[in-house]
Backbone:
């Protein structure tokens, strides 16, 4: 099923367009326009964001007004929920990039 999957429970939300700040998952009531639902969210990055943000957002699970927000692209498959960045080739490239000078 196309469209946004909830970052919290993984269920389809039916949203295919822009994610508004007021949107919540109907199943678990999680805010959808939040850091955890953003494609730039990275727990290992500074301020847990791959973008150069000026002010860190303290609660990553609550809706916010971040200008960098882009919905995380995820697909549901028989192997479970995966982001599109999880392809084998992209994982290999990221690993090899660690050793480039």
Residues:
């Amino acid at each position: 099923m196309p469209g946004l999957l909830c970052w919290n429970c993984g269920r389809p939300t039916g949203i295919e367009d822009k994610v508004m700040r007021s949107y919540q998952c109907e199943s678990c009531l999680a805010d959808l326009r939040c850091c955890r639902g953003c494609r730039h969210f990275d727990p290992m990055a500074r301020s847990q964001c791959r973008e150069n943000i000026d002010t860190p957002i303290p609660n990553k699970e609550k809706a916010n007004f971040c200008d960098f927000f882009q919905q995380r692209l995820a697909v549901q498959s028989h192997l479970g929920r995966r982001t599109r960045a999880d392809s084998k080739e992209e994982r290999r490239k990221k690993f090899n990039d660690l050793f480039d000078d």
